[in-house]
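Retry 2 of 3 after timeout on previous attempt. Resubmitting C-alpha cells to design endpoint.
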C-alpha cells in the first residue's frame, strides 16, 4: 500500500463552525527560541505561498511581524513549514495546508494586518472557474479579518486578470485604493515572490494592486 508522505501536513486546529470560538492565532506559532518572549506583533497572511520564498524573505526582513500562509497543496505546505522551522523562524511563520476560502472564516475578526495574493488563479478554462481564489466570498472574509487600515495586496503579470481583480475589488465597499489609484509601480514589502523576481529579471511588466481596509 502506498504511503502518503504528506498525510500529516500542518493543518489548522480541528475545524469548528465559524460562529463558534475562532482559532487562537497566537497558538498557531511555535514556541520562540530559549530566552526570547513570544512575539505579539502584527500577523500577515499569504494566500498560496507555493514554495514559500516570499514568506521567508518577509520574515527575515521584518523581525517584528508574523506571517501565516494558506497553501492548498499539502506537499508544499509541509515542505515550506519545515523549511521555515529549520531557519529558526517557526515562532513567527507557519504554513498550513488549507484552502483560504474555507480557512478564513475560522480566523478572528480584525486579526490580520496585511493579506497578500501573488499571481493567483492559474486557471483559464471555463470548467476551472470554481477553482478561482478571487471573488466576493474571499473579499468579504478578507474585509472581516483585516484590521481597519489593514492592507490587501494583489499582483499579477496577466493584464486580463489584473483588470478583473480591480473590477471585483471596486465593487466591495470595504476596500479603497491605498493611493490615488490602486495600481502602484512597486510595493514596500521588501520580499519578492519567485515569479515576481523572474518577471523583473526578464523585463516583464507586473501589475500591482494595493488597497486599504476602510
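Retry 2 succeeded. Sequence:
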Amino acid at each position: 500500500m502506498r504511503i502518503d508522505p504528506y498525510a500529516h501536513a500542518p493543518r489548522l486546529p480541528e475545524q469548528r463552525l465559524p460562529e463558534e470560538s475562532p482559532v487562537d492565532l497566537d497558538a498557531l506559532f511555535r514556541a520562540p527560541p530559549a530566552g526570547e518572549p513570544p512575539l505579539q506583533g502584527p500577523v500577515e497572511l499569504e494566500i498560496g505561498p507555493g514554495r514559500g520564498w516570499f514568506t521567508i524573505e518577509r520574515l527575515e526582513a521584518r523581525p517584528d511581524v508574523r506571517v501565516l500562509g494558506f497553501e492548498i497543496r499539502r506537499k508544499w505546505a509541509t515542505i515550506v513549514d519545515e523549511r521555515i522551522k529549520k531557519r529558526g523562524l517557526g515562532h513567527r511563520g507557519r504554513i498550513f495546508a488549507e484552502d483560504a476560502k474555507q480557512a478564513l472564516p475560522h480566523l478572528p475578526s480584525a486579526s490580520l494586518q496585511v493579506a497578500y495574493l501573488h499571481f493567483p488563479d492559474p486557471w483559464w478554462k471555463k470548467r476551472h472557474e470554481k477553482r478561482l481564489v478571487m471573488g466576493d466570498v474571499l473579499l468579504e472574509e478578507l474585509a472581516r479579518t483585516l484590521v481597519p487600515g489593514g492592507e490587501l495586496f494583489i499582483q499579477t503579470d496577466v493584464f486580463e486578470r489584473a483588470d478583473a481583480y480591480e473590477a471585483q475589488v471596486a465593487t466591495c465597499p470595504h476596500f479603497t485604493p491605498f493611493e490615488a489609484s490602486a495600481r502602484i509601480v512597486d510595493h514596500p514589502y521588501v520580499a519578492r515572490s519567485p515569479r515576481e523576481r523572474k518577471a523583473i529579471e526578464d523585463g516583464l511588466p507586473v501589475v500591482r494592486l494595493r488597497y486599504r481596509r476602510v
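Attempt log closed. The radius of gyration is 17 Å.
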